[in-house]
Amino acid sequence: MRRDDQRAMIAQTIQLALAPVFVLVAIGNIMNILTTRLGRIVDRSRSLKTLHAATKDAQHDEVVVEMRFVDRRIQLIGRALLVLVMSGLGIGVTVGMVFIGEILGIELRTLTASTFFLSISLLMLALVFLLMETRLVAQSLRLPPELLELHRKDI
After folding, report:
1. Domain boundaries, the chain
2. What is the pLDDT along the chain (155 residues), one digit of tens a residue?
3. Distance, CA of 34 to CA of 83 (rounded, Å)
């Protein structure tokens, strides 16, 4: 193979690998969001542990209910992070297979497409976990109707 042909092949392979790399950047950004959320949840769980020991009766029950929400949130974010890491590894394998296929002259398109599809599927699953976590937050933060005073028409 001529040197110019090799350069063209390498340039084309790099262009082909760019789309999965952009997905990898998106995965990294989502992981950043999730780890920030996880940090806040951990901070809240530490405060709840202190409140757990210091409260009694109905107030204690409220703390326990919130601790259950916090525990579920930690589980959902942990799953989302695990699935995102697996997705990122899949994207890395996809990019590697693009280069290996081109360098060795092996037809890996079906396998490469399969790993890319699997990686995108894992990314979507992680987003479902994120959605579940945010819905849980919304559910736990709902204000009781009596505090909203919906019966009052003057405001």
Report:
1. 14-141
2. 677 777 777 777 777 778 888 999 999 999 999 999 999 999 999 999 999 999 999 999 999 999 999 999 999 999 999 999 999 999 999 999 988 998 898 999 999 999 999 999 999 999 999 999 999 998 888 788 888 888 888 88
3. 12
Query: Could you give the angle at which helices 3-54 and 57-104 cross, rounded to 10 degrees?
Result: 170
Whether this prediction's pTM lies above 0.85 is answered by no
Cβ atoms of 70 and 38 closer than 8 Å: no
How many Å apart are CA 133 and CA 153, to the nearest integer?
35
The radius of gyration computed from the CA coordinates of the chain, to the nearest angstrom, equals: 24
Query: How is the chain classified by DSSP, letter by letter?
Result: --HHHHHHHHHHHHHHHHHHHHHHHHHHHHHHHHHHHHHHHHHHHHHHHHHHHH--HHHHHHHHHHHHHHHHHHHHHHHHHHHHHHHHHHHHHHHHHHHHHHHHT---HHHHHHHHHHHHHHHHHHHHHHHHHHHHHHHHTPPPHHHHTTT----
